[in-house]
């Protein structure tokens, strides 16, 4: 210590005790460890020191097969906004969406008859108008993913004895104890969507299986166990009566009256009464144009993000796609075939050539000339058109 009373720095350091686990207060030590734990959480997920409702919901979902979003998400808002959510994807089917919405509202308000499943809908209409896509979207909206959708192609059950594949073989028969594809799917996923696709191709006796499912919300498997179906939404798709739907598309009331006798020729009246018939209308040219525009917009985004090039899609492309799609009464089903099989091959050939030559692309242009799709590109180096391909398809 000097005359001024100041203590040298080295002596001051010696006089101040180092902070150790013994000298730091428990509160300070806890704060330090908490900060270190938070820093580790930024790098990798560790076990949380607390149990919250999300973790409890995850455990229950794993045990019971109930989707996590059914336990944690405000499902009521999804049901309330269902017309808008479905309408963003399903075009030209406002009547069908409204019918589904009102019945699902009743089911979610728990005002349906006791024991009934959440829904049993027969989606009837022409091919390619959005029946299957509606079911896919509902599986995502209601249950959180397509993993909660069980799809059964009913064309595989054209013989009476094939019902054992759905519910399992009875005692004494080959396959006993293995379970059926339908009953096991419902048992493992009690909250889910079941799609019976192309139901008119199945043997009529196979459909007898669904009387109790649609009425009492239960189904007996091959071993006699009762499978609970009360939280299942059943969808059946069919092309039956599509001519009636096409002819009376502008008059929904007459359509329903004329459609029932056609459906009753295949479905037994008692089974038909247990289902809600939802007609799907043929797609108008305006609706097809909207769907085509959406698919071309997605293609535009893919090309821009992947190749960083300017993309020009001429109006003639839409016109050519429309002319090919409307040649047959397949609705939007032909769209993928026309786009993937006719429009994209010329473009794909040029892209592969550019990628093989390691050439950057500045501009991609798609057009249609003389009933054929064409594609040409401009290189990024000299901004000149160096390659053009035109193919008659």
UniProtKB/TrEMBL annotation:
<keyword id="KW-0143">Chaperone</keyword>
<dbReference type="InterPro" id="IPR003959">
    <property type="entry name" value="ATPase_AAA_core"/>
</dbReference>
<dbReference type="GO" id="GO:0005524">
    <property type="term" value="F:ATP binding"/>
</dbReference>
<dbReference type="GO" id="GO:0034605">
    <property type="term" value="P:cellular response to heat"/>
</dbReference>
<dbReference type="Pfam" id="PF10431">
    <property type="entry name" value="ClpB_D2-small"/>
</dbReference>
<dbReference type="InterPro" id="IPR027417">
    <property type="entry name" value="P-loop_NTPase"/>
</dbReference>
<keyword id="KW-0067">ATP-binding</keyword>
<feature type="domain" description="Clp ATPase C-terminal">
    <location>
        <begin position="283"/>
        <end position="375"/>
    </location>
</feature>
<dbReference type="GO" id="GO:0005737">
    <property type="term" value="C:cytoplasm"/>
</dbReference>
<keyword id="KW-0547">Nucleotide-binding</keyword>
<feature type="compositionally biased region" description="Acidic residues">
    <location>
        <begin position="10"/>
        <end position="21"/>
    </location>
</feature>
<protein>
    <submittedName>
        <fullName>AAA domain-containing protein</fullName>
    </submittedName>
</protein>
<dbReference type="Pfam" id="PF07724">
    <property type="entry name" value="AAA_2"/>
</dbReference>
<dbReference type="InterPro" id="IPR050130">
    <property type="entry name" value="ClpA_ClpB"/>
</dbReference>
<feature type="region of interest" description="Disordered">
    <location>
        <begin position="1"/>
        <end position="25"/>
    </location>
</feature>
<dbReference type="GO" id="GO:0016887">
    <property type="term" value="F:ATP hydrolysis activity"/>
</dbReference>
<dbReference type="InterPro" id="IPR028299">
    <property type="entry name" value="ClpA/B_CS2"/>
</dbReference>
<dbReference type="InterPro" id="IPR001270">
    <property type="entry name" value="ClpA/B"/>
</dbReference>
<dbReference type="InterPro" id="IPR003593">
    <property type="entry name" value="AAA+_ATPase"/>
</dbReference>
<feature type="domain" description="AAA+ ATPase">
    <location>
        <begin position="117"/>
        <end position="265"/>
    </location>
</feature>
<dbReference type="InterPro" id="IPR019489">
    <property type="entry name" value="Clp_ATPase_C"/>
</dbReference>
